[in-house]
């Protein structure tokens, strides 16, 4: 998971308000419940010292019906919302917090995975390709093949075989033209997955026209649905979630192998030390929403440590404490390192956290 989208949260100093609220609305009573929950949350934030302009900005992001979602995360400072995202379900814990760093880890653990992919509908006359980028932006293209005819008549007679051959040649040509569009759009968004629906025979013909690499990441949907349909979106969500889970397991196994080459560390102190040095390529973290682990932090994105002395030795003056996961998220976003959540299966690393390094541990200062 890339955390570049979090960088605006860290561009200015000052305490940040973090809010996670159940905003599900089914009827008028549901709307009233959201308003009541926000009223209680606002009172708690005010008691923590949040200023009125910032609370008003958060309210504007939470309460309007147009922002309806099962749950919402909002981060704000100095009278403006820095980031807000809808959650796919109500937050596992309702959170109202004012602190130096935004509390983003619950959002990262619960947000829908963002993986660039294509949703494709294959037909004998062409098809449809919907590209979804890693940022969630979409682009939809209809492909009308030049091959004709595309329908077999089944009328019999002396010309039936020739007509059927012409039809099958048209199918092949249209599959080739659809494959060209799929290949182009996959390259443009860096697609990791291709979800393929449509006519079963047209799907087979399309896959034959794809490169080995693209065919290997193509997942068939046994339904004749359009690429831009809600059903295709639901199928894509399931496929993306499965991809993310498999990829996290693969990265954890890769971390295990790299330990032998001193390119992996485990535990909170070692991971924080590597983050301070900019040596981390990936962090793998257990999803423990109840964790209350803290860290010492300074103003810089990689100013984090388990003790104030560790930061003082680097010239960081007047360090303060905050959540360890919040400090780790800031360091990851600052250094463009990746975050993966550890799979539930298997023995977790020390402290439920480990890191894959950009270079061997001996080279870490």
Alpha-carbon distance between the two ends = 26 Å
- What structural category characterises the helix and strand content? alpha+beta
The third-level CATH topology of the largest domain is Nucleotidyltransferase, domain 5
Based on CA atoms alone, the radius of gyration comes out at 25 Å
**What is the number of independent domains?**
3
Q: Number of DSSP strands?
A: 16
Instruction: Profile the largest sheet.
Output: 5 strands, mixed
Describe the structure.
The structure is a single chain. The chain is globular. It contains ten helices and 16 strands. The mean pLDDT is 89. Helices cover 38% and strands 23% of the residues. Helix 4 crosses helix 5. Strands 7-6-5-8-9 form a five-stranded mixed β-sheet, sandwiched between helices. Strands 3-2-1-4 form a four-stranded antiparallel β-sheet. It has a four-stranded mixed β-sheet with strand order 10-16-11-15, with helices on both faces. It has three domains: 4-110, Translation, Eukaryotic Peptide Chain Release Factor Subunit 1, Chain A, CATH 3.30.960; 117-245, eRF1 domain 2 (Nucleotidyltransferase, domain 5, 2-Layer Sandwich), CATH 3.30.420; 261-363, 60s Ribosomal Protein L30, Chain: A (2-Layer Sandwich). By secondary structure, it is of the alpha+beta class.
């Amino acid at each position: 998971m890339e955390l570049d989208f979090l960088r605006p949260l860290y561009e200015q100093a000052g305490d940040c308000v973090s809010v996670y609220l159940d905003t599900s609305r089914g009827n008028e009573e549901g709307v009233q419940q959201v308003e009541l929950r926000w009223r209680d949350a606002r009172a708690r934030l005010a008691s923590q010292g949040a200023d009125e302009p910032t609370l008003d900005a958060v309210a504007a992001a939470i309460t309007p019906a147009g922002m309806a979602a099962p749950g919402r995360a909002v981060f704000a400072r100095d009278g403006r919302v820095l980031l807000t995202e809808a959650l796919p379900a109500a937050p596992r814990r309702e959170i109202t917090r004012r602190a130096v760093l935004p509390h983003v880890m619950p959002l990262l653990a619960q947000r829908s995975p963002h993986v660039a992919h294509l949703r494709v509908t294959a037909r004998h006359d062409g098809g449809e390709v919907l590209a979804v980028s890693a940022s969630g932006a979409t682009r939809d293209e209809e492909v009308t093949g030049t091959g004709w005819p595309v329908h077999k008549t089944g009328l019999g007679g002396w010309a039936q075989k020739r007509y059927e051959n012409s039809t099958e040649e048209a199918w092949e040509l249209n599959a080739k033209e659809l494959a060209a569009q799929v290949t182009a759009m996959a390259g443009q968004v860096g697609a990791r997955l291709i979800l393929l629906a449509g006519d079963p025979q047209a799907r087979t013909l399309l896959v034959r026209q794809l490169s080995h690499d693209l065919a290997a990441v193509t997942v068939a949907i046994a339904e004749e649905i359009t690429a831009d349909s809600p059903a295709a979106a639901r199928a894509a969500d399931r496929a993306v979630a499965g991809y993310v889970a498999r990829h996290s397991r693969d990265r954890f196994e890769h971390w295990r192998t790299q330990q032998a080459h001193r390119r992996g560390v485990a535990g909170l102190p070692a991971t924080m030390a590597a983050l301070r040095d900019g040596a981390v390529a990936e962090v793998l973290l257990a999803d423990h929403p109840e964790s209350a682990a803290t860290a010492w932090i300074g103003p810089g994105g990689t100013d984090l440590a388990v003790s104030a002395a560790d930061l003082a030795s680097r010239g960081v003056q007047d360090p303060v404490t905050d959540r360890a996961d919040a400090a780790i998220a800031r360091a990851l976003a600052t250094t463009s390192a990746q975050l993966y959540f550890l799979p539930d299966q298997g023995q977790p690393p020390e402290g439920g956290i480990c890191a894959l390094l950009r270079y061997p541990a001996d080279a870490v200062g």
